Amino acid sequence: MKENKKKTEQELITPVAKPVSRRILLGGAATAAVVLLKSSYGQIIQKAISQAELKINDPTKVLGPPPGELGTRSKFEKPVKKPSDTSSRTPLQDLYGTITPADLHYERHHAGVPVIDPQQYSLTIHGMVEKPLVFTLADLKRFPSVTRTFFLECSGNYRGGKETLRPQEICGLTSQSEWTGVMLSTLFRETGVKPKASWFLAEGSDAAVMSRSIPVSKGWEDAMIAYAQNGEAIRPEQGYPARLLLPGWEGNTSVKWLRRLELSDQPFMTREETSKYTEAVKDGKIRQFSFVMDARSIITYPSYPQQVQKGWMEIRGIAWSGRGKIHKVEVSTNGGRTWNRANLQEPVLDKAHTAFRYLWEWKGGEAEIMSRAIDETGYIQPTMKQLKEARGVDMGGYHLNPITSWLVQRDGSVINKPV
Amino acid sequence: MNKLYIACMSMIVFSCNSHQTSYPESKTEHIRQADTTGWPARFGLGRPASAAGIAAMDIDVSPDGTGLPPGEGKAEAGKTVYMNRCVACHGTETTPGDAKLLGPVLISNNPGKAKTIGNYWPYATTLFDYVRRAMPYNEPGTLSDEEVYQVTAFLLAAAKVIRQQDVLNAQTLPNIKMPARERFVPDDRKGGPEVR
Questions:
Q1: Distance between B184 CA and the closest CA of chain A, angstroms
Q2: Which residues contact A387 (CB under 8 A, 6 or more apart)?
Q3: What does the radius of gyration of chain B's CA atoms come to, in whole angstroms?
Q4: A352-368 residue pLDDT tens
Q5: Residue A288: its pLDDT value, please?
Q6: Which has the least CB within 10 A, A47, A67, B110, B147?
Q7: Residue A93 is part of which domain span?
Q8: A181: in domain
Q9: ipTM summary value
Q10: Boundary residue ending a domain (A277, A306, A324)
Q11: Rounded distance, CA A200 to CA A268, Å?
C-alpha cells in the first residue's frame, strides 16, 4: 500500500489493490488498482487505475530506463519548428538562454535538403588564385580550427499585421549556434588569393546549386567554413558536411553544402542577389548587396498566446545586431512613452543573440510592452513607421527589423499589436 | 606592486563604467586568428584542382558573358520548351498577375508587386545562369544549353525586352540592356543612429 500514499490529483479515498505480479509491473498498462475517487462534483466514483497511471506521479517508486546511446527530450516538452513550403521557423518563445538546439534551428533552403556523403565531399577554390585547390572534409578539419558563437538570420525574417502571432511567426527565421570550422582567411592564404580578386562566388551542391557573390574583404575579415554546430557535425538542414558562415550577414549569403568558391574581380549577379534578396527603397530604386542584418530585439515573454498574472514578472527576450555587439536594450511598459534599461546576460558576444531581462510589476489594466535594441554603432532599432519613412511605402519585405509590441490586456492575455 | 596594480585596474574599471552611456568609438576587432600560432607559409593540404575538374562544376555565367556556352536559341523554340517544362508552375502569358502559382510569375509586364523579368531583373545573363543551374524545379539541370538559350529567348521576348526573331547566344545575351538595370543601387546602410 506504500505506493499509494502520495495522492493523485484527484482525492484518493480507498485504494483496493490487486496483487501486483512481475507481469503487471512490466506490462504497465494493465489495471493495477481499483480506487474510489471523489469527483470534482463531490460524488464518490469507482475507477480502475493502470499501473502506469499509478506510478507516473511518483518517480521515486519506478525504476527508470538504463543509460542509452542518445539522449531524448522530455516527453512533456514539445518545442517544434513551424514549417512552410520554403522555410521552417524557430520557436523562440520556447527557448532559454541564447543557444538554439540544433534540431530547432530555422531552415531556409531553395530546393530541399541534399544528402551528401562526407567521403565524397570536396570544396574547390579556383579563379583568381595562385593555386586552385580541392579540399576534402578531412583536409578542412586538419587546418587550425576556430569555434565561435553567432546568430544566423534570414533577411526575410518579418511577419506582422495580426494579433495572433507568436515570436516564432514574427521573427522565427533567426537562430544561434556555436560553430566550429576553419577560417576562410586560412584557405585564402593556402590558395594564394590574388590582390585584384574583389568578389568570390560561393556555390552550394543542393538541387538549386544556390550561389551568391561575396566581397573578398568579408572572406579575409571573419568568414568561416563551418563543419560543426553545437559540438557535433553540422546538421543536414544547416549544410552538412560544410557550409560558409558570414557573421552578421543575411542568412542567404552563408551558403550551405558548400562545394565551390570562385575568386573574381566582379560580382556574378546571381538570381539570389538580383531578383531576390534586394529591396525597393525610395525613388523607384532597388537596394542591392544589403548584406548586414541591422539590430533587432523581441520580447519572448510575455508574448502571444501567453497569459500573465498580476504581480512581478521578468520580461525576457533576445537582441542581436549584425554590426557588432549589443550595447543596450531598452524596455517600455507604456507603449514607448518611457524606456528602461534591461539587464543583458553576459558575456555579450559580437554578432550574437544576447538575452535581456527586465523586472516588471503588472498591477492589472492594459499595458503595451516593447523592446528596442541599440548596438555598438549607436543604431537604435526603429519602429515600422521609421522604416517606412526611410525607405518609402513600397519598401520590400527584406531587412525589416521593427520594434515588436505586445498588448497585455485586462484579463492577462497577451496579443501582438499589429503595425 | 600588487596594490599599485589593483589601483590601476580600479581606475580602468571606473573609467569604463563612466563611459557606459556613450558608444564605443572603435568598432569591434574583426580579425580572429586561430588558437594555434606559429603558422607555416602553407599547410600543404588539399590537392591541385584539375582544369577538367573545375570545368565540370564551373557553371556560372557573369554579366559580361563569361561562362556562356556555345549554342543559340530563339523565342519560338523556347515557347515549346516553356510549355513542356515550365508552364505547370509558372503559368502562361494570360495567367493573371495575381494568380497563386507554384513558381513566380515570369512573363507578366503588369506593374505591381510581382517582381518579373521585365520589371525587376537587372541582367539577362542571370536568367541563363539560373535556369541552367536550378530549373526545372522538379528536374534541375536537365535542360540542354540549347534549350536554356531558347527558353531564355522566349522569356525575354515575352517581357518585350527582345524581339521575337532575335537570336540569343554567347555574344548577344550579355549585350541585352534590362529595363530595371538602372534602378539598382548599392546598400547605403552603415550603422549609426540614422535609419536607412
A1: 5
A2: A395, A400, A401, A402, B195
A3: 27
A4: 999 999 999 999 999 99
A5: 98
A6: A67
A7: 82-277
A8: yes
A9: 0.84
A10: A277
A11: 8
